[in-house]
Amino acid sequence: MSKNPEFVKFDKVDKSYDGKVLVVKDLQLDIAEGEFITMLGPSGSGKTTCLMMLAGFETPTHGEILLDGNIISNIPPHKRGIGMVFQNYALFPHMTVYENLAFPLRVRKVEKDEIDKKVDKALSMVSLNGFETRMPAQLSGGQQQRVAVARALVFDPAVVLMDEPLGALDKNLRESMQYEIKHIHESIGVTVVYVTHDQSEALTMSNRIAVFNDGKVQQLSDPAELYEKPVNSFVAEFIGENNTFNGEVIDIAKDKCKVKLANSEILANPISVKSKGEKTTVSLRPERALINPTDKMDNMFTGKIEEVIYHGDHTRVRLNLLGSSEFILKVPNSTSNLELKVSQDINIGWNSTDARALDPK
Amino acid sequence: MSSETKQILTTDGIPLEVSLKKAEKKNKIKAFLLVAPLLLFLIITYVFPIGEMFSRSIDDKMITNMLPKTFKEMEKWDGQELPPEEVFTAFYYDFKVLVDKQEHGKLGQRLNKEKNGFNSITKKLFRQVKRKKIDESTSIKEQIMKVHKRWRNVEYWQAIKRTAPPYTMSKYLKGMDMYYAADGSITQVEEDRRIHRILWLRTLEIAFFVTLFCFLMGYPIAHLLATLPMKYSNLLMICVLLPFWTSLLVRTASWMILLQQQGVVNDFFVLIGLVADDNRPEMMYNKVGTYVAMTQILLPFMVLPLYSVMKTISPSLMRAGKSLGGTPFVAFWKVYFPLTIPGIGAGCLLVFILAIGYYITPALVGGASGTLISNQIAFHMKQTLDWSFASAMGLMLLSGVLIIYWIYNKLVGVDNIKLG
Hints:
The complex is a heterodimer of chains A (361) and B (420).
Chain A: E1 8-16, E2 22-31, E3 36-40, H1 47-55, E4 62-67, E5 70-71, E6 82-85, H2 97-106, H3 112-125, H4 141-153, E7 159-163, H5 171-188, E8 191-196, H6 199-205, E9 208-213, E10 216-221, H7 223-228, H8 233-238, E11 243-252, E12 257-260, E13 265-270, E14 279-284, E15 290-291, E16 299-310, E17 314-321, E18 324-332, E19 345-350, E20 356-358
Parallel strand pairs in A: 3-8, 3-9, 6-7, 7-8, 13-20
Antiparallel strand pairs in A: 1-2, 1-4, 4-5, 9-10, 11-12, 11-14, 12-13, 14-20, 15-19, 16-17, 16-19, 17-18
Chain B: H1 16-58, H2 61-66, H3 68-74, H4 85-101, H5 104-114, H6 118-130, H7 140-147, H8 154-162, H9 170-175, E1 178-180, E2 186-188, H10 195-227, H11 230-241, H12 248-259, H13 264-271, H14 287-311, H15 315-323, H16 328-356, H17 360-365, H18 373-382, H19 387-411
Antiparallel strand pairs in B: 1-2
Helix pairs in contact in B: 1-19, 3-4, 5-6, 10-11, 10-14, 10-16, 12-14, 14-16, 15-16, 16-19, 18-19
């Protein structure tokens, strides 16, 4: 069966609540069948609004949303057949776990035997067999979350929407739930649209990530590309850690440019700069800068250690480098570790391909 | 695990429970002192008056104290035929004491309530005693029997005997249109005189329908209040609360202005041609007036508990219901409505209990067919001065409310009530 690459399609969608501010601006987004796509962004970036429009609780101010080729803008939520997991689980507190799961089947007039079978299957999927008669209040947060996931999947929807479903869980539980949801997705192949503001959650779980800011998709790509090759300084800043230098392009070639900082010059990879004289922000991942570089790197500088923070598996070093005292370095914890001391001078180097010259902040 | 639990000691060897109690004691005293003023207030203004009301409603000591010798002699009398000479004699001496204290009138009134006709014959007897016409050296029975023929009627003596116990349930029976018949059995009054039963039924009926109307109107308002954005819901909340801040009398009076035959509502009906000018419907001094005014006045008591419950229901629950495939109606009926039941229970109970004892509004707009049992209680408090009867009916009302509360508790559970 060939997968439809435009299973869900946002076609030039605008959304405004008050007629003054556009919350979502000209959104163009295709979601393939069976894909796990994450909408990632800070709060107020329009990601939840997109989800609500897809679920049918908000109507687009302009543009169309298509599900499997059909325009769904005028179909009410209960006829869309889209499963949804809510931020606060939204389990019906007056129903048992079984009744919660049976609800979508009962309203679809499914036979009693069939309901029993499907509920049982859904509960075993989230390993909650035997909890049928419990009330939601008798479950822990993680169990409630799993019931909510099972309920959104029990009626075999084509698309499942998840609105920051793990936001209320503690860190360990959140991580294990991430894997669990990922595995469920892989085993049943449902299309998942996931909304979160937690970048590590997005990187762990998704096939593709759409980074939202200011009502627009800033970058849509798979997790590795998003992290390695951010296309603008917002994405670079939002995903992972990031050392930045603000400067001006003074020389530019095909894959290299020279950027003049306050009192020095560095070589960088021109991503969004085109010509000489442009202002730019150069972004460099902390783990891409090495101490005492052995091979020939095209950026080599000396910095002074300002602070050393021990993190267990790695050590973070804050340096005063090129006039900025906010340069962060990540040193993995290995046996050959150097003695790092505050106010010591060290040599730092990185490749110009890793230093991405992006739009100015 | 061993079933024996070892006593746990604190470091200085005192059992843990003891030292815990010691540590808690100070807090307990503090807590008690904090509630003490309220407790005292409640005892003085609530428990004590209700107890007083109860004792007044069953109190029949006055006559017991008036005729002590008579009742003592009557104990020996079987109550079938005219009492023996001793009873008459004892009655005569009791009566003489009353004449000296000028309390014979009270006796007449009290006995007259028991059986009509006592008033005149005690007056007659009083005149004879006052003029010292009764010869104490011969048979007093003969002389009393000559005063009036009713003194020869055994039914009157039976009536006196019935008043002997210091307590009586007769007021409660009267409240239910029943009385003690001559032979002491409980009998219903004639059908055309059963006014109290009509009033009780009407009170229940009006309270029920007012509760229903309040629910039907209050539920959508509360829902709107709970779901509207803050700036609109605040305005609406003020509209709901505004009547709360207006005097009950003012509100009732304005309903009188609106509902009277030449009033605003009727004018409007005539204007739009709904009714003819010479055939204006009566909307006041009957049940309609009572329904309209009471529903409006009691509406906030329905809206507020409903609102406070609805406010806690997350809007995502309705959304979940819809996204799972429920039509808006199914989502409402299966998800939203069951969650509002605690509020409905609280609101209905509150409105019903308030309505069942409502007084001012039915008195002003109710007319003859719209008055309630509380108006009857007030009538006996102020007009007939039969406080013991008023107390009895008040207590019957109170026990009615308690029964409703008990039924509600059985059906829904009081723990489910949410007032906010």
